[in-house]
Design brief:
CATH superfamily: Translation factors
Number of domains: 1
CATH class: Mainly Beta
Number of strands: 13
Shape: globular
Radius of gyration: 16 Å
Largest sheet: 7 strands, antiparallel
Order of helices and strands: EEHEEEEEEEEEEE
Number of helices: 1
Strand content: over 45%
Strand order of the largest sheet: 8-7-12-13-5-11-9
Oligomer: single chain
Length: 130
């Protein structure tokens, strides 16, 4: 089944996770690294995003010299994460399993979007390492 389309010099993937299921699924279980972290979202004046983010926000997570996709989930019922403030969040890293020896308690990281740093944080603890 074709899950991409070539438009000019771009390749548009219709289902970005479909082509890499072998990396995400093993024996029916999702390979996921979940961490509890404190994150500070930079303000626009600090070089961050121009608008607040919502729980479920999906920036890139920096580990070593690599960027991997992640999902930021607020631990409270509050869905809006205001810029310029610290939040305790859960970060889901579907490709984090291969970096689990680096992502440990106290690990400092950046959250990136569009080639720039939009947040900075520290791992409090690893919640789940599949």
């Amino acid at each position: 089944m074709k899950n991409f389309e070539v438009i000019g010099k771009w390749i548009i993937i219709s289902d970005p996770l479909e082509h890499c299921q072998h990396d995400l699924i093993v024996n029916g279980d999702t390979i996921m690294l979940k961490i509890l972290a404190v994150v500070y979202f930079l303000t626009k004046a600090e070089g961050g995003r121009p608008k607040n983010v919502f729980s479920g926000y999906m920036p890139s997570f920096s580990v070593k010299d690599e960027l991997i996709m992640c999902r930021v989930i607020h631990t409270d019922e509050n869905e809006i994460l205001l810029l310029g403030q610290n939040y305790t969040v859960i970060i889901e890293l579907p490709y984090g399993e291969q970096f689990k020896e680096f992502i440990t308690d106290g690990y400092p990281f950046n959250l990136n979007e569009g080639g720039k740093i939009v947040g900075k944080g520290n791992v409090i603890k690893v919640i789940q390492a599949s």
